[in-house]
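tokens incoming
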């Protein structure tokens, strides 16, 4: 293995003798008569090893050792010392010198010190190679894992979407069959029934398409400064007629402690509209006639968060097993009327805002959905 070495000594004769000896050992040899000159050679040539005298005029060997280790920590430094300078030699080891040799220098002793330096260089290079290989391996494995998770997520989404489309296609096929029978038998009841089946499934296709467009729409957020109460006021105005037609009382409660926030108002609007729409449906499905069906829309300032939105209903509620599946791809509690994309979209938008969405629900008692957005969004 070819290595370079820098000899530093103020005595020209020592430099000459060592240069010949080290050249015969196969080293590329540089020489310097002072610490300052040695530092410049280290900067220009970056030798693998520095062999320096401890006592020199101007910058001594200890100071040179410190400077080399500061600027070039991978260079190994061997100290040359006289028999009376053992204390300085031992001190040099504390400053990361590889070894020291005493003058007059014995070739065998020097060779042992050089071997130790080369072993340290080799070990450091092996460690560096191992670390780089490990980092590369981790990056490759991480990328493969991400790709595998992405493919799994795509596969799961395709499977859920295929199931939804298959159900709609089955409904259309059934409606077409009834229509054909009505035409064949001149039966108005079959014609009417078949047409209703076809129309209902066309509406499902439209709803599914719009939901998918909505899911893709918020892949990138378009933030702006807004009063967080403005969003739920708009939701209240939009959903009030929907709630009344379903026999549900919709009310609103606004916090006066909220500050303007920097968020995608259209995206958060979509989240809250999804939750309120689901809450109204949950109330409509509740079979009890003894309660006033109610959906409450609230804004709050919660400790540690910039803004909190709540949508609470006293509808049919959910059991624990259903609640755990809520945000899975294409999972719906609405049977054939739902496609599950609304809550997927809601969760995705909240997570893009670095927020969280929580759900509490009790069967036959109702549900509470909570969206919390971080303080970092406050202006």
């Amino acid at each position: 293995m070819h290595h370079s070495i820098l000899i530093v000594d103020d005595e020209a004769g020592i430099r000459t003798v060592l240069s010949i000896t080290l050249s015969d050992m196969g080293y590329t040899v540089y020489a310097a008569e002072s610490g300052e000159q040695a530092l410049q050679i280290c900067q220009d040539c970056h030798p693998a090893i520095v062999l320096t005298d401890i006592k020199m005029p101007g910058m001594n060997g200890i100071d040179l050792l410190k400077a080399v280790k500061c600027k070039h920590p991978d260079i190994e430094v061997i100290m040359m010392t006289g028999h009376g300078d053992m204390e300085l030699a031992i001190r040099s080891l504390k400053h990361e010198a590889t070894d020291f040799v005493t003058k007059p220098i014995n070739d065998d002793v020097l060779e042992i010190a050089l071997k130790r330096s080369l072993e340290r260089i080799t070990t450091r290079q092996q460690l560096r190679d191992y670390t780089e290989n490990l980092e590369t391996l981790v990056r490759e494995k991480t990328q493969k894992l991400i790709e595998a998770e992405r493919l799994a997520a795509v596969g799961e989404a395709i499977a859920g979407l295929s199931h939804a489309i298959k159900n709609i296609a089955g409904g259309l096929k059934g409606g077409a069959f009834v229509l054909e029978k009505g035409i064949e038998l001149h039966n108005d009841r079959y014609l009417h029934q078949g047409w209703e089946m076809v129309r209902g499934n066309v509406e499902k296709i439209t709803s599914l398409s719009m939901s998918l467009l909505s899911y893709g729409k918020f892949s990138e957020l378009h933030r702006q400064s807004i009063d967080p109460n403005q969003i739920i006021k708009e939701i209240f105005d939009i959903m009030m007629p929907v709630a009344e037609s379903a026999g549900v009382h919709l009310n609103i409660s606004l916090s006066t402690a909220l500050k303007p926030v920097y968020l995608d108002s259209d995206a958060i609007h979509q989240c809250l509209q999804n939750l309120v729409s689901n809450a109204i449906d949950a109330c409509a499905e509740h079979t009890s006639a003894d309660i006033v069906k109610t959906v409450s829309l609230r804004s709050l300032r919660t400790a540690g968060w910039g803004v909190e939105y709540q949508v609470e209903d006293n509808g049919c509620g959910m059991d624990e097993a259903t609640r755990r599946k809520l945000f899975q791809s294409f999972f719906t509690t609405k049977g054939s009327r739902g496609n599950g994309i609304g809550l997927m979209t809601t969760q995705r938008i909240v997570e893009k805002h670095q927020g969280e969405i929580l759900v509490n629900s009790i069967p036959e008692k109702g549900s509470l959905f909570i969206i919390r957005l971080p303080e970092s969004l406050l202006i």
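note: The chain is about 55% helix and 20% strand.
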